[in-house]
Amino acid sequence: MTEALIDRLAAIVGATQVSIDADVLEGRSVDHTGRYRGHASALVRPGSADEVAAVLRVCRDAGVNVTVQGGRTSLVAGTVPEHDDVLLSTERLRDVGEVDVVERRIRVGAGATLAEVQRAAAAAGLVFGVDLAARDSATVGGMASTNAGGLRTVCYGNMGEQVIGLDVVLPDGSVVHRHSQVRSDNTGYDLASLFVGAEGTLGVITALDLRLHPTPRQRVTAICGFADLDALIETGRVFRDMEGIAALELIDARASALTAEHAGVAAPVQGAWQLLIELAGETDLTDRLAEALESAELTDEPAVGVDANAQQRLWQVREAVAEVLGVYGPPLKFDVSLPLSAIRGFAEDAAALVAEHAPDAIPVLFGHVGEGNLHLNILRCDLTGERGLYSAMMALIARHGGNVSSEHGVGTRKRDYLSMARTEADIAAMRTVKAAFDPTGYLNRAVLFG
């Protein structure tokens, strides 16, 4: 990083939007969990797609690596620089357009937060299909780059199913505008989908057209307790394929105990495992809920919420989990996708593996059980215990037929385990695509392949 390069970047975005302050860069070079750190040489905050393009061209020509940052909520160190990178932040790309209530869509900048999109949709009487606990800081550009899922995936699908158009700056500085006003657009390559889930390795998303959905008139929410995980999974299967399913969330009793102690939010039912169910539609679905639960092996009566306040209290049980995960310091996180039939065996084997590698640690399991997408967080696990545990847990996931990444992406943390989920031919094809778009590999160099 030379003074001349800094001057060129400042000429593009303005001197106030470039920083080489050591404290600023240090704060931007640590991941959301606080476990992984890197090193950057400068921070640049472009204010438009044209500025992003100019910044990329300057950095490429200078042989400087670039790491793209949005809300920096990655849980796999996806925004941690490893090569004295220039950090390109999308935080100024915050435009939120008018909602098209007829076509149910909205155009937003990549730096807009999920919460901002949700508020715009709600004000127009619509709903955005993806919801995350990090809604106030996660940006939609980053969510598209990782194909994020979240709390409503069982109903609306992942982020990729919400993206109907985008603007993306390619590594050579050219800008692709892929937008269409028609619902059926099958002309040529589906370029938009190529950048969704690419984790910023193929280009920088600067704006998106997002699909919106009608707001259901009726909702009913319940939390059920189970003594046996297999019984919960069987009930989950019933609801997963049910018309009107809006959410299906697993919580273990260890998580509930932590939320009760540290957040003042106690589970309203007993049992080693809890299942949050929400149905939504145009009519009252309470009877449908009750009928589906008649044969479920519950520990006691479910807690049911039919009005907004009661539903919010039940959702707090699930969302408070994210608030307490750091009570013992940064947790060791695993985002795993498993066949439903493998969840019980994985839960038992994972607990035994944690006890072997980190006897004082607390394993907490929760997540989106409708898709088999679970989040295993190891609390009170020091760095000494982490070294052997991480690779052993990845091997365990593979043995149970799971995928090493579900909705958080690969980032830098999981790149060494990519071969557990993809064949050599798959990886070679992905590398070919990467090389076609970014021959020198300067964009998000540390991510995915390393």
TrEMBL record:
Protein name in the entry: FAD linked oxidase domain protein
Keyword GTP-binding: no
InterPro entries reported for this sequence: FAD-bd_oxidored_4_C (IPR004113), FAD-bd_PCMH (IPR016166), FAD-bd_PCMH-like_sf (IPR036318), FAD-bd_PCMH_sub1 (IPR016167), FAD-bd_PCMH_sub2 (IPR016169), FAD-linked_Oxase-like_C (IPR016164), FAD-oxidored/transferase_4 (IPR051264), Oxid_FAD_bind_N (IPR006094)
An example Gene Ontology molecular-function term: oxidoreductase activity
GO terms, biological process: respiratory electron transport chain
Domain of life, source organism: Bacteria
Occurrences of domain FAD-binding PCMH-type (ranges): 36-215
